[in-house]
Structures are given as structure tokens and as C-alpha cells.
Amino acid sequence: MSKNSPQADRKQGDPPVYQDHFYRSGDARLTLYARIYESDGPPLLLMHGLTRNSADFEGLAAHLAGKYRLIIADQRGRGRSDYDPEPENYTPATYVEDMIALINGLQLDRLGLIGTSMGGLMAMMMAASEPKRFSSLILNDIGPVVEQKGLDRIQSYVGALEPFDSWQQAADHCRKVHGDVMAGYNERDWLDFARRTCQELSDGRIKFAYDPAISEGLSGSEQTVVPPDLWPVWDQLATIPTLVIHGALSDIISPATIAEMQRRHSGAISAVEVADRGHAPMLDEPAALSAIDHFLSGAGR
To answer: Which of 277, 47, 280, 51 is nearest to 155 (CA)?
Structure first.
């Protein structure tokens, strides 16, 4: 079910209009949400990382809207999607089932995939299961090997936090956690970052827009956030045009992993580094936008 977003009354220069789309999860237990930027262009499904939501792609959506039909989902437990009362369902395999339910409901037979971090893991899994359905892959700072150092860093800040008293306090926290990997951000940038990743409660306080229980997949001896041994999955993608974007400061994907991805991919694959970014680029950086335009136009295939 889709309906017009409040953006319908936007003025010139405002962000592009999207529709609010609600649908049932793959297991039919939850109501999930996605933004849809309508266009006659080819469809693209955009999938965010572990702690983010559909707002994470606002910069990229503003750049691509009108040229592509953009479907940008809030995974279960994030943004405007229902939280799952059974945290063990917060796994990439479950999210993939949700995404298949989404695109089946929209009757999309062939589309491209863009995935940041966890969303990139999902993109690889989806494309490996139905390689003829997905025309291209853009993986943002992720590959078949996820460095433990990066997972440890993410584990250090994901989970239950006391709500913030103001948006400025939330922005200050975001800068403290991510400042080392987002060089050049100013005060306004961090406030915008906070507004994309947090939500306001009824009492005016601010919290991150995700269920703290998503952190359970990062703890214990058997982490479920990253599927084990993704090289067999990657090997099934060898004929799908792929663009790998990675931060120069990333602690999640290594140069060795990127080199091995290129060695094992017999089709068209390119890799682009984004300076002054760690995990993960926002995909609104000039280097990322240029690479995405070149790739999606077919020039990079």
C-alpha cells in the first residue's frame, strides 16, 4: 500500500517527492515501510546498514530521483518498520525474505541493487539466489570478508542508550562516534546526520531510530549479523556487473578482499575509493556519485 508523502507540497529546491509504502514482511508477522521515488526509469532497490534506515540515502536519492525508480526500505526494527518481538529474527537471511516480499509485491521482475554494509551483504545473497533477476550490484564498503576490527568497533556503540535531551546532544554523540571516519563534516552536517539516524519521542527527547535488540546479533560466540563464508556466494555473482565503493579509512573491507573479489569475478567489476571516509561512505560524495552515474549508465560495464 502506497500513499503520497507529506513532501507532496514541497517547494522548488526541496528534496524530491517520495511515496510512503507499507507492506507485510516475508513471514507476514510485521508491517514494514519503504520510500518509493517514482519514475519511468529502471528500478533500483537501496538497502541500508545495520543501524541506519531509508533516510540514509537521502543524498543519493536526490541525485538519482527522476532517472530511476528508487525503492528504499526500512529493514524490520528500523525507522518506520515494526520492531520484531523475537530478536533472533534480526538476521540478513530474514531481511532478504522481507526484501523479496517487497519487490514481489511491487511486481518487479528485474532491478538493480545498492547496499551499504549489511545491505550489501543482503544484496549479494539476493543476487546469488536469483542471478537473472538482478541486473547490477553496487556494494558500499562491504565484501565477502568482514574485518573483525570493524565489527568490534560497531559492537562498541550499537545497543540501548538513554535518549538524548536535544538534537544538538544527539549530533554531538554522532560526531563522537563517527567523527574519525567522516572528515570535513561541520556542525550542520552532524545535525543532519543525527536527524537521519534518530527520531523524536513523544516527550521531545531523541533516540536512535532502531530497536536496541538488533545488537544481539553482534554479541556472543555465534554472531548472526554476518553470514559465515560468503566467498561461495560471491562466486555465484561473477557475471553480474558490480561496483564496489569503499572508504579509504574503512576497517570493514580490506584492500586484500577487494583484490580477491576482482580476481574471482569474471564479469565487469570496478572498485572506487572515497577519500576521508571510513565505514561507510554516504554515497553523496562527488567520487561516489560520479562512479555510480558512470556505472549505472552502462559505461562501467
So the answer is: 51
